[in-house]
Amino acid sequence: MDLSTYFEPVSLDDIQFVHNDFFPHIGDRIQTYTTENGFPETKKQHLALLGVCDDRAAVNNSGCKDAPNEVRKKFYSLSLPNYDLKIVDLGNMVMGNTAEDTYYALAHTIATLIHRNVVPIVIGGGNDLAFAIYKAYEKLCQIVNICAIDPRFDLGTNESAIDSQSYLNSIIMSQPNFLFSFTNIGYQSYFVDQQYIKLMNDLHFDTYRLGVVQNDLNESEPLLRNADFISIDLSAVRQSDAPANGNPTPHGFYGEQLCTMTRFAGISDKLSCIGFFEMNPRFDNNGQTAHLVAHAIWYFIEGFYGRKSDFPYKDKQNYRRYIVPLIGDESMEIIFYKSKKSDRWWMEIPCPDDRQDKYARHLLLPCSYRDYQQALNNEIPERWWTCYNRILN
Fold first, then answer.
1. Is the Cβ–Cβ distance between 54 and 61 less than 8 Å?
2. Cα dihedral across residues 283, 285, 290, 293: positive or negative
3. What is the DSSP-derived secondary structure letter of residue 34?
């Protein structure tokens, strides 16, 4: 089906970005779906922006469907993050008769774009749209790593319906299941029941409290580098920096920390989709949160054009290989790879022969120099151990 069937054009009169004769803006370069220009061609593009104006399953956040155009107003006015920028704006997805109809259209759109090697940048809408994006990878029959920047785990209690605080449960219960790993960055303990923390540990998922991540934000880079899809709930940013949310909290990431993480995400060769959800213009203060999301997208794009093409699965020849034997167990060793291009680190995860093909993309796990130091001190890095147990189970 032609993707244009799912979308309605954008009115540039509503965006009204400011032109500047001194330097080009994103709005001057982006190919936008308008009534006058028609639906843009995507096959030769690098990135595709799309809005999903559906908040029917957004818990306590009615109005977040209006986020896409508000973000466009700020995004189009920003300078070019790279002069080679090739990006299209597909417009806003027509809301289906039911939320399931919207999920179907979004899943088909994302799967088509990824198949064409175009990275989708999704502006929602509710956080439940992450479930639809997972379904896109299911359509592609691709084992997927999902990373969520979110103060909650979104496991919910409702097993019969999907909403913005229970979509993860629906992903976990999907059969056949294509989820390899899930990573939560920035959860806040007072929003998470202890039984859910135990469940995440039992599933061998990675979870990192807000304070731990903020203590050394650079340690989030390997987590983001391991993701195929990153879902960002704007309530993960503190209310003083991002007031446009129906579920605000005084704690959370600072705006500049969000931008740092989206730049980390952009640099990752593995990442193929990113989504920004739960921004509600009804609660915004002079467009403050719309500005922040636009800036975060800008940093993501800047990172995208700084990619080093050093995902180890492609070519191990451009890496230094370090073998660290663990004292006391002669059969145990951890193999590390360090990129000669970017100085980034990976570690090799052993895998049974009958699972090599299935998990091939996930057997070189992004890590940091700190993990290498741990191994030198005869300690097994926690993320190595978690991934290893995930493969065995």
1. no
2. negative
3. B
User: What's the start-to-end Cα distance of the chain, in Å?
Assistant: 38
d(CA 314, CA 274): 22
CA separation (Å) from 148 to 151, 153, 227, 262, 278? 9, 8, 9, 12, 13
Longest pairwise C-alpha distance within the chain? 71
Mean pLDDT in residue range 61-86 = 95
Lowest model confidence (mean pLDDT) among 231-235, 265-269, 379-383: 379-383
Contact status, residue 321 vs residue 339, Cβ threshold 8 Å: no
Residue 232 · residue 164 · CB < 8 Å? no
DSSP state of 237: B
The full length of the chain comes to 393
The pLDDT value recorded for residue 257 is: 98
- Two structure tokens written together for 241: 């920096």
The predicted structure's pLDDT at residue 312:
74
Residue labelled with tokens 């020849």 = 317
The pLDDT-based confidence of 384 (bands split at 50, 70, 90) is very high
Q: Where are the alpha helices (DSSP H) in the chain?
A: 12-15, 26-29, 67-75, 99-115, 129-139, 167-173, 194-202, 210-215, 221-225, 255-267, 288-304, 369-376, 382-392
How far, in Å, CA of 195 to CA of 197, rounded?
A: 5
Using an 8 Å Cβ cutoff, are 162 and 99 in contact?
yes
pLDDT tens profile 271-299 = 999 999 999 999 999 999 999 999 999 99
- Residue 66 to residues 278, 312, 336, 343, 360: CA-CA distances in angstroms? 10, 40, 46, 41, 40
- The answer to whether 231 touches 272, Cβ cutoff 8 Å, is no
CA distances from 232 to 125, 280, 385 (A): 11, 14, 26
CA distance 228 to 145: 5
**Eight-state DSSP code of residue 258:** H
Burial (Cβ within 10 Å: 0-12, 13-18, ≥19) of residue 173: exposed
Residue 181 CA to residue 203 CA, distance in Å, equals: 9
**330 pLDDT higher than 70:** no
